[in-house]
Amino acid sequence: MKHWFKQAALLIAAVIFGAASNSAHADETIKIGVTEPLTGAVAASGNYVVQGAKIAESFLNAKGGILGHKVELIIEDNKSNPKEAVASVEKLIVRDKVPVLMGAWSSTYTLAVMPKLIEYGVPMVVETSSSGKITTSGNPWIFRISPTSEMEAKSFGTKVAGFNIKKADFLVVNNDWGRGAASKFGAMLKSKGIAVGVIETMDAKAQDLSAQLAKIKASGGDTLFLTTGVEQITLVLKQAKEQRVTHRIITTGGSSSPDQLIAQAGAAADGTYHLLFFAPWFPEAAPNPAVAKKFVDEWNKRGYNFPGLTEGFRGHDGIMTIAAAIEAAGKAEPDAIRKALWGVKVDGVNGDIAFIKQGPAGKESGQNIPNVYIVTIQNGKVALP
Amino acid sequence: MDQFLQHILNGTILGGTYALLGIGLTLIFGIMRVVNFSHGELYTFGAYIVYLFAMVLSANFFVSLVLAMVLGVVLGAAIEFVLLRPLRGASIDTTMLVMIGAWIALQNTEQLVWSGVAKSITHPFPAEPLILGPVSVSWVRVFVFAVAVLLIVGTHLLIHRTRLGKAMRATFQDRETAALMGVNIGAIHTATFALGSGLAAAAGALLGPVFVVYPTMGDLAALKSFAIVILGGLGNFMGATLGGFILGFVEEMGAGYISSGYRDAMGFLLIIIVLVFRPTGLFARKERVG
User: In this complex, which of A207, A242, A263 lies closest to B211 when CB atoms are compared?
Assistant: First the structure.
């Protein structure tokens, strides 16, 4: 008798829990996995991208979500480390079962996670990385909204005459991003008849760059192209001033957060130039001024750090691109999203987002053609040159 | 030639802080036989304390530096008292694992308290560098170097001229005999760990304003400290001091004339060479214990 009771109780429990999990299924959220460097050497940028992504999430949910479901970002910290980036992506796909990802900031982290996308068959929108290899290595799960170093160099090439450069030196972070930028900008400068002096590299964690700067000073160039994250740019500007390096400094890659440089490097930031993919000081000059203005207003309303806007917009544009693809696919499934990404047209903060094909035929990656801006710091203020 | 002189100057300045990091670690190893993996975290701790006082609480910059060193000593003493004292006599592997645990716990606490985003500390020194003929160096680095040298000399005097130092040296030579002669080994261990930690915190406090401050900044510093200590011979004070300067020069010259991409590899390459030819370190003496 007792035994029978127990069985009945179990059965009832199973029915109730089953029903409960069924009803949970009905208001299930659409999950989007995000892997960004929230701690470690390039933490500032990763945090800004996540803040931008969260703004996009709230914009989407304010409109009622996607396909009637709320959007939920599952955010993982890749600790500014390619090994951790792979672990974070594996966790997002296997445990959280996200159908689509955004990440992973640095080209090195993105390249590290790319084989996992093929292994599990999950698409990823790349919001920051600029190494050419990402879209040319034949990974059909990659869709990049940020420009490649080559695009950036080409865009700068149209304005290079105004800078009157005779000989340029390079100081780049020793990874795929930095070395890629040095090679593409170097090729562009040479094609314009400009001499390239020394190409110096630095470890992403290095704090003392005096040896590199002494060598750059001795090279006798007039312009220094600098490619790294804002933390290291701050150190380079301060130490260049200490060592009286007189080069005009131009940063590439769009991760210079000029207002943060003004705050942290002070006078050492004066006279520097920065290639950016969003100029939040002048949102009205963006290709989609209404989108840019709405984003900047929400960023300020939330009390986020203004200097972070030049990174934060990437998170917004990435999530909006993914949302558009899920909407078009009609379901939150990896392969359907991948197919839909080819057709998206999004009004992003940077400009209009759409993908062209890059890489070997049959397994092309998607690449957007973004806008590039140049700003300069004069007397502690950001200005258009 | 100008570039060469600039490299010499940079190497010297860098070497001073490396030496400061190295002697703290070598003292702890020599006297306590503890491989202190939390050394880099004390360095980070020092930098954040300066940030806390100088930037958040707007205290005087120099007062903040002194506070960072004092609190580094206090934290070191606390770690010794809570974690290492119960483990005295335990094998070197056990204490090593405990110190790895302390390292991870401290680093994550820093991350929790300060977030991962780098902080910048402003200092009262002029932004214009000190110009010496063809070379230049910032005033803050001159100050850092001067204080580092003072601390190294001060530590040397403490070990060789005071009663406490004599007791430390006695413990270093033979722990049991020292105990039999009435040396309080427990107190010596606490003092040694506190001193070594204070020196690491001092290095962090001095370099925080030169660089930027973030939770994982201590990892590279710890790695370099180990390199210096191995270079100079484990437990050798003079060895660690000279090892610091040698590492500074090798990195600077390697980056300047061979390849900047391998700057951090230079030091480790040197260690491999030293270990092949002098397995006990460059300056090891016969009477060294262990």
Answer: A207
Q: What is the largest CA-CA distance in chain A?
A: 96
In this predicted complex, what is the ipTM?
0.84
Residue type, B271: I
Question: What pLDDT score was predicted for residue A21?
Answer: 45
Q: Where are the domains of chain A?
A: 30-147+287-367, 151-276
Query: For the domain A30-147+287-367, what is the CATH superfamily, name and number?
Result: Response regulator (3.40.50.2300)
Do A30-147+287-367 and A151-276 share a fold? yes
Give the 3-state secondary structure of residue B271.
Answer: helix
pLDDT (tens digit per residue) in B19-78:
999 999 999 998 888 999 999 999 999 999 999 999 999 999 999 999 999 999 999 999
As a whole number of angstroms, the distance between CA B213 and CA B204 comes to: 9
Partner-chain contact B216 A47, CB within 8 Å: no
In chain B, the domains with their CATH numbers are: 2-115+130-277 (1.10.3470)
Decide: helix, strand or coil at residue A55: helix
Please name the helix (run of DSSP H) or strand (run of DSSP E) that holds residue A373, with its range, or none: strand A373-378
Token look-up 């060479």 returns: B273
Q: Does A290 touch chain B (CB under 8 A)?
A: no
Mean pLDDT score across all residues of chain B: 90
Inter-chain CB proximity B264 and A206 less than 8 Å: yes
B264: chain A residues, CB-CB within 8 Å: 203, 206
Q: How many residues does chain A have?
A: 385
Four-residue CA torsion sign, A40, B119, B260, A109 = positive
pLDDT along chain A (385 residues), means of 10: 59 52 60 93 89 97 95 95 96 97 95 97 96 95 95 93 95 93 96 95 89 92 95 93 93 91 90 94 91 96 93 96 96 96 96 95 94 93 90
- At A161, the amino acid letter reads A
CA distance A345 to A358: 18
Residue closest to A321 by CA, chosen among A347, A339, A360, A300: A347
Query: How far apart, in Å, are the Cα atoms of A150 and each of A95, A131, A189, B95, B131?
Result: 37, 8, 12, 52, 40
Fold held by A151-276: Rossmann fold (3.40.50)
